[in-house]
Design the sequence.
């Protein structure tokens, strides 16, 4: 099996380090991608730190991947050598269960195969995008429209689709008041997308530090959640609240901000259970939901929507030798607004 350069974690506490990983030979329906850019998602950090469960070390993470097709298997019909393509959080699913057949591969009843840390068809552990190449079944490879700047396309494959999917499902659009909690990688995409969909957008951030950015990204209003007055002023206001925060919050406080029939959708994924007071849900017939990435067809729809509306993530390009530092900056909510690794700086 071919060995390719990668940045890899070997423990929950240590830094990631350069090395090599193996990729499978290109199968009949596979696409070989030379990775150009890889986004740093907070999920990469939760995973390696062991916050979501045991980690199959050594592990190369990264599930926001943008690159060029350099080889295709003989049965591939969707992609050609030279195409700009992306890979997100999934690299396979059963494709026969009711959810897969309905286009919801992310809710595959057998569990989809994660881009990293998953179990591949041959029993090996899947390895992610902090590497120079990846081999993926064509069904899980997305087309990146020319209108999207290549260096900022990668974060759409996770941050973009994870916010687009609930915004569409809960009909964010004209006449709807949408709040986005947390202005990070996911949050800043939620603001851009909700604005482009025509909703009235409010950012609920820990402080007013990023207020100017939030308004520039498309928010109509910006509030600090460290000010208790915010929760009084905005009580019973929103149709939809998308919570992107990576740490546990007092959810009841946010549920109280929902108007009649409003919904809080959690996409942030802290491992701790979060208590919900039922009496808060009774008022206004409120709902609380979760949402996980999006299906493959919906991901392509999101990419095409972004191309059409001139939407792209705001990125900070980092070299491979800056990955550990970038992780620290993610944890400090210091990145504006997604760190993307320039994979050409990765050397074996
Ligand atoms: P991120 O860039 O670190 O953004 C998280 C934001 O949450 C921060 O920018 C910060 O915003 C806010 N925040 C962080 N710590 C906080 C705290 N202690 N209290 C209040 N607010 C805090 O992370 P991300 O990559 O966007 O990911 C966000 C979460 O979504 C992670 O848990 C990730 O695993 C999860 N995720 C879920 C899915 C899914 O399918 N459901 C997909 C991708 C990621 P402010 O500074 O503005 O307050
Ligand atoms: Zn992610
Ligand atoms: Zn399935």
Sequence:
């Amino acid at each position: 099996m071919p060995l390719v350069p990668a940045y890899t974690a070997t423990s929950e506490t240590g830094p990631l380090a350069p090395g090599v990983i193996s990729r499978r030979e290109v199968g009949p329906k596979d696409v070989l991608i030379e990775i150009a850019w890889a986004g740093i998602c907070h999920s990469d950090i939760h995973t390696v730190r062991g916050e979501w469960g045991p980690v199959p070390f050594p592990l190369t993470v990264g599930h926001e991947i943008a690159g060029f097709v350099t080889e295709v298997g003989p049965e591939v019909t969707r992609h050609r050598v030279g195409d700009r393509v992306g890979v997100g959080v999934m690299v396979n699913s059963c494709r026969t269960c009711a959810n897969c057949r309905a286009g919801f591969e992310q809710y595959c009843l057998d569990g989809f195969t994660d881009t990293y840390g998953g179990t591949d068809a041959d029993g090996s552990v899947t390895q992610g995008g902090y590497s120079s190449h990846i081999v993926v079944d064509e069904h899980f490879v997305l087309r990146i429209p020319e209108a999207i700047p290549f260096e900022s396309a990668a974060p759409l494959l996770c941050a973009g689709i994870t916010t687009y999917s609930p915004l569409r499902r809960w009909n964010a659009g004209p006449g709807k008041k949408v709040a986005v909690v947390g202005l990070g990688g996911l949050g800043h995409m939620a603001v851009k997308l909700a604005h482009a969909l025509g909703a009235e957008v409010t950012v609920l951030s820990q402080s007013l530090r990023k207020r100017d950015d939030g308004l520039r990204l498309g928010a109509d209003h910006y509030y600090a959640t460290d000010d208790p007055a915010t929760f009084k002023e905005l009580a019973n206001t929103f149709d939809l609240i998308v919570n992107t925060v990576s740490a546990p919050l007092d959810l009841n406080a946010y549920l109280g901000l929902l108007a009649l029939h409003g919904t809080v959708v959690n996409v942030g994924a802290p491992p701790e259970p979060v208590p919900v007071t039922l009496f808060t849900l009774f008022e206004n017939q409120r709902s609380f939901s979760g949402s996980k990435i999006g299906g493959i067809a919906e991901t392509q729809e999101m990419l095409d929507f972004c191309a059409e509306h001139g939407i792209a993530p705001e990125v900070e390009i980092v070299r491979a030798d800056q990955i550990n530092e970038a992780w620290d900056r993610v944890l400090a909510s210091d990145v504006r607004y997604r760190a993307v690794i320039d994979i050409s700086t990765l050397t074996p």
Observations:
- The mean pLDDT is 98.
